[in-house]
Input
Amino acid sequence: MAEEQPIICVRGLHNQFGDQVIHHELDLDVRRGEILGVVGGSGTGKSVLMRSIIGLQTPQHGDIEVFGDHLLGRPEAETVDIRKRWGVLFQGGALFSTLTVAENVMVPIREFYPKMDRDFRREVAKYKVGLSGLPPEAGPKYPAELSGGMKKRAGVARALALDPELLFLDEPTAGLDPIGAAAFDNLIKELQKTLGLTVFLITHDLDTLHAICDRVAVLADQQVIAVGTIPELLALDHPWIQEYFNGPRGRMAAPKETGGG
Amino acid sequence: MAVMTVPSDFVEEMMEDGVMALRFSGDLSIATVDDLPERLSSYEGDAQKIDLSGVGYVDTVGAWLIYRTARDIRVEIVGAEPAVDQLIRTVGGVDPPTDVRPDPPNPILRILNDVGESTTLAIKTFAGLVGFFGAVVAAALSLMRHPGRIRWNAVIQRFDVVGVRALGIVGLMSFLIGLVIAQQGAVQLRQFGAEVFTVNLVGRLTLRELGVLMTAIMVAGRSGSAFAAQLGTMKLTEEIDAMRTIGVSPIEALVLPRVLATVIMLPLLGFYASIVAIIGGGVLSWVALDIPPATFFTRIREVVPITDVYVGLVKAPVFGAIIAVSGCYQGMQVKGNAEQVGFRTTAAVVQAIFMVIVLDAFFAVFFTWIGWS
Output
């Protein structure tokens, strides 16, 4: 297995709703083991890109490879083995509201590994709840009883249920208070290190970008206009990138700026 | 790329230092553990150590399995790579873990609790419904003093949704009901040679009872449920709270137009339903009993007293009010999650139909009492 082979490889992606072109000839590589931040203005198709990769949205044309396997145009049954190697955290958590947190974690396990011993499955769900930083009393609670931050953590626990190699996070820190957001950033970094995850992270949160992302991909003009570390991006003179990182909020979030903060 | 296909296994083996050890091999991951958890749970040997020097890929499931085994049979783990060791310690760090479900309460207590809860719920619902009805009436009275505030657009839009769009389904249902009443009536009455009374049966039954009752049930299912679901969803998305904060009364803006539209539309729909049912009965009489339409309608006018029409028309607005109020009330009670919307929608329909039928019985007694029989 070649080391440099990307874990996600998107080529020539074209997404269109009616007359509105979202992506045109979009290319993107995600390297194994990195945390890739995906940024872009509202409506540039960050979520659509994620949904295309995980198969919730069929693009007009293009090619998507995950773990070196083509995904587009194949029946769901064939891609099961690929789909169980990734986990997804949706924006609102998307927990099943009729199940407790621990039962939510058990759902993907039961779905993909129906033969696993029932007691062992429960144990797995339990320690996953703990791994995602939830207190023990959160396991038997229903999603409606949780705060926003706890819902996100529960969502992470479910996304990690199958021990995925690849984690998709859609705006994980949106709606969290700064302390909760920072704690969540730490959790992602920690999990990424211990479990060797690759993380595809859509975010608007400049602090998250600075704190945990190895590289950042910028979506604009229907394409990924740049991918690189933040210093690399700052060296480009694209107006949107400059405004994004050097705007008032961008400067505040930058770690080494003096007087900011 | 990690390929997780080497099945995992363990054997009991004597190590060089003469200690019995559980020696694991293969990959330890969610995809490869298979029946290992059960086999390890039932392991009853006297191993002193767990040897991980032979394993390949380990994920958290494998790490948990090792941690749990080491904890249960009290042995130490040797030969683990640093990363694996770290993983086992991370996973073990969250032990003791959480519960899956809330603790089930004592069964007797639970039954008592359920009984008490349903009773208080029934009382609360009734009280709430009465209170809500009062609020609607109060809002209606205040609107009468300031007619400029009535939202005619909303009311007329509801006319369309509740009334006009129901014409097709209510018409079809009524036509079939008329047909069935005439057919069943004819079969029974033929035994007494009294087939001609089928006309009385169809005319009186549909105008007095079935036209309005069946329409009410249909509207409860069609519009009462829609009201509950709409208001419930608006409650969840905080639209109703937003309305309150900008000084718009949800009762005035959302509930009254719906109640008004249903109260006005139900008599019209009910009357229409009765007429279509009579037409259905007429068609069957013509085809099966050889009563020509002209004769049928002359007979209808002779045998159906005008009070039958009044009975239907008096009941209909009351039923309409019940359906709309209980739909809106249940919708406004939604809180928490999406499941509540479904629950409240069902409750609205069941409640509305139940109350309509109970009230219909009261009306039957009442109208007989005042001599409109």
